[in-house]
Amino acid sequence: MSELNIKNAIEAILFASGDSVSLGRMAQALELTEKQVRKYADELLEEYNSSSRGITIIRLEDSYQMVSNEEYAPQIRTVMDLRRNTPLSQAAMEVLAVVAYNQPVTKAFVEQVRGVDCSGVIGSLTAKDLIEEKGRLELPGRPLVYGTTENFLRCFGISDLSELPEIPASSSENSEDTQGDDSQLSVFTEDAQQIEETKTEPDAMIAATVGEIIEEATKSEA
Questions:
Q1: Structural domain contains residue 74
Q2: Which end of the chain is more exposed for a tag (fewer CB within 10 A), N or C?
C-alpha cells in the first residue's frame, strides 16, 4: 500500500474501533512492523491536531484512539444528554496521586503514606478504571500491587507517565522515607513538566498537583 493508503487505513481502523487500538493489532492488520505503524500513526496524529477539527487523535502509550475535541464537549453533552462527571473526592485524589507517582504500589504502601485505611477509595478508583491490579509481590501473603490505567492517561490528557508534572526533590525524598520494605518507589521525572514549588507539605503537594489536573480533566471530558 502507498503511504496515503496506510494512513487512510489507520484512520478507518481508529474510527471503526471507537476505543484505543494497539500498535501490535494495527501492524498485524496492515502487515507492517510496529515501528512503521507508529511512524504513520504519529504523522496522522499530527495532521489531525494541527488543524481545527471536531475529531482528534491521541496516543496512549503504545495505543492510539480517535476522540472528540474537548472544545465541543458542551455541545456533545447536550446532544447525548450526558451529565457532567462528578469530581473525585479529596481522598480519591490523594490515593490516585500516591499510586500515579509511585506505581506499582500495594494498598499497605498507600495507607502508610496517607495514614488511614484506603480500601474503599482503592475500590472506587478501580471501579472508575483509573487504577487496576498489576500483579502480586513475591512477599509473604503475596499482596496485590496497583498502577494507573490507560483511562487515567486519557483523563489526564497525556500520552504516557513521563508527562506527569515533576515532584519537587523534597517530596521525592519524603516518599522514599515512607517506602518501608516494599522497595517499589519509582517516580517518573524524565522530560516532565516543571511545577512551582510551594510551602505545602509533601503529601499535600502531590495530592494538589494531581488533583487539580484530574478535576479539570473530568470536568471537560465528553
A1: no
A2: N
Per DSSP, the residues of 11-77 read HHHHHHH-S-EEHHHHHHHHTS-HHHHHHHHHHHHHHHHTS--SEEEEEETTEEEEEE-GGGHHHHH
Separation between Cα atoms, residue 164 and residue 115, nearest integer Å: 24
Please give the Cα distance from 164 to 162 (Å, whole number). Answer: 6
Full DSSP string of 118-168: -HHHHHHHHHTTSEEEEEE-SSTT--EEEEE-HHHHHHHT-SSGGGSPPPP
195 with 95, same domain: the answer is: yes
pTM: predicted TM-score of the whole model, two decimal places: 0.54
- Using one digit for the tens of pLDDT, what is the confidence trace for 76-133? 878 876 566 667 888 898 999 999 999 999 999 999 988 889 888 999 899 888 999 9
